[in-house]
Design brief:
Structural class: alpha+beta
Order of helices and strands: EEHHEEHEEEEH
Radius of gyration: 15 Å
Strand order of the largest sheet: 1-2-8-7-6-5-4-3
CATH superfamily: START domain
CATH class: Alpha Beta
Number of helices: 4
Number of domains: 1
Strand content: 35-45%
Number of strands: 8
Shape: globular
Largest sheet: 8 strands, antiparallel
Distance between the termini: 22 Å
Helix content: 10-25%
């Protein structure tokens, strides 16, 4: 796993990345499938989106993992709106509650790929969450491919 500041189409971002032993198409499908976001996104408890697979302009709501995680099942997190701002060439970005949030990208490397989360610099403290997401994505891919 690597963590570095990189120049992205959205400016300088803290990028947390890892290589995954799967084709880019497989990982891209996991990243764009809203039904799977709670599987790999540590801060995502649920997703409400008309499209299962996002595209540029998709809108919906995520429910964040909140106090319910620690205080019992009757306490849920926040329900916040999102809008996918870009989704092309194995890269998607979004705004959550109107604020630019993480970018997500997959870079093909033959039979493997590099998965990266682009974090706005003011949100650098979110890096450990992205590390956990990358570990979960690796596990999902391993489970799917045997």
């Amino acid at each position: 796993m690597t963590v570095a500041i990189e120049r992205t189409p959205d400016g300088r971002r803290l990028v947390v990345a890892r290589t995954v032993d799967a084709p880019a198409e497989t990982v891209w499908s996991i990243l764009t499938d809203t039904a799977r976001w709670p599987e790999w996104g540590p801060s995502v408890a649920a997703v409400d989106c008309p499209e299962r697979f996002i595209q540029s302009g998709s809108r919906g709501y995520i429910e964040t993992v909140g106090p319910g995680t620690f205080l019992g099942p009757d306490r849920s997190g926040l329900r916040v709106p999102f809008r996918i701002t870009t989704c092309a060439d194995y890269r998607w970005t979004w705004r959550v509650a109107g604020v630019p949030a993480t970018g997500h990208r997959v870079e093909s490397r033959g039979e493997n790929c590099r998965v990266a989360f682009e974090i706005p610099l003011p949100a650098a403290a979110y890096a450990p969450v992205c590390r956990r997401a990358l570990v979960a994505i690796g596990r999902i891919v391993r489970d799917a491919t045997g």
